[in-house]
Design a protein that fits this description.
There is one protein chain. This protein has helices at about 1-35, 50-60, 60-95, 100-115, 115-125, 135-140, 155-180, 185-195, 200-210, 210-225, 230-235, 240-245, 245-255, 260-285. With about 290 residues, it is mainly alpha-helical. α10 (about 210-225) packs antiparallel against α14 (about 260-285) and α13 runs antiparallel to α14 (about 260-285).
Length: about 290
């Protein structure tokens, strides 16, 4: 009772947060799980159908194609989106002019602030085969005819991957730079006294000391690879849909277009289970708990 009396105000302050998560996170999750076992109709009875919705999802070829697309696009975003900001952060760390470093960080971070609606509209204009800047430069460089990037299935996945990497480049880069700045300078001084070159300092001091930051960023990015939706919804079209439709797009189509709410709920729980499985694998592979 003494502890409760001492920390009572803190527990009271936690009540709104707990209520928020119960109402807006856990209650919809439980309702979604219930719906996944129902023949859910907007009106009338909603009988329970057991595992039928899950079976229908697993045997649906559209779901299987979406699963493959998700792993290809999401996995590529995960790997490229991890390596590219790390290289940029290490490069910026070598820049001596502080103003240039700050300017580069600001320019890199701006796309992260924009919504996918803005980014989608911007790149639809830039990649246009008629008067898009990218095609104008390619034609100037000697290309015979413009490339219709957004309607070419061969480019569809690369467009999704590269735009996602570009959008979050600045955010991840700043996280890496924050980790680099926290490294004890005496380690570099000791390395220099031992005759280490700049590359050897990066290899044997910076990267090992940055391992904790790298684990966190890799795990956070892993949590998002199965939730890709915005860029696909904005940039897809009937020509590229078979190459870029992902799990969240499948769930959206089942729930909001076909009004198969039970099937959509079952598909969404597959996403949850796969995300949990991926997270556990990444934690085990990276030895996350040994940070």
């Amino acid at each position: 009772m003494r502890t409760l009396r001492k920390y009572g105000p803190l527990y009271v302050m936690m009540v709104p947060v707990v209520v928020y998560f119960l109402v807006y996170a856990y209650y919809p999750l439980v309702r979604g799980l219930q719906t996944s076992f129902q023949d859910y109709r907007l009106m009338g009875d909603r009988p329970y159908v057991g595992w039928s919705n899950y079976s229908a999802v697993l045997h649906d070829t559209s779901f299987q194609e979406a699963l493959v697309n998700t792993f290809i696009i999401g996995g590529s975003i995960l790997l490229i989106g991890f390596a590219a900001p790390l290289v940029v952060a290490l490069s910026l760390n070598e820049v001596l002019q502080a103003w240039y470093k700050k300017l580069a960080q600001m320019v890199l971070y701006i796309p992260h602030l924009l919504s996918w609606v803005v980014i989608g509209g911007m790149w639809i204009f830039l990649l246009s085969p008629d008067n898009g800047l990218v095609n104008l430069l390619l034609v100037k460089a000697g290309l015979d005819q413009p490339v219709n990037f957004l309607a070419d299935p061969g480019w569809a996945r690369w467009i999704m991957i590269l735009l996602a990497v570009w959008k979050d480049m600045g955010y991840n880069c700043i996280l890496f730079l924050a980790g680099i700045m926290s490294i004890n300078p005496s380690l570099y001084e000791a390395a220099r006294m031992d005759g280490a070159s700049r590359w050897q300092q990066v290899r044997f001091v910076t990267l090992p000391q940055l391992s904790s930051t790298m684990k966190v960023i890799f795990l956070l990015n892993t949590l998002g690879i199965l939730r890709i939706f915005d860029e696909v919804f904005i940039l897809r079209n009937p020509t590229t849909a078979p190459k870029v439709d992902v799990l969240m797009m499948y769930t959206f189509q089942k729930g909001m277009v076909d009004i198969q709410i039970g099937t959509a709920a079952a598909a969404s729980f597959f996403v949850v289970l796969l995300t949990l499985a991926l997270t556990l694998v990444v934690r085990w592979v990276t030895r996350f708990d040994e940070v």
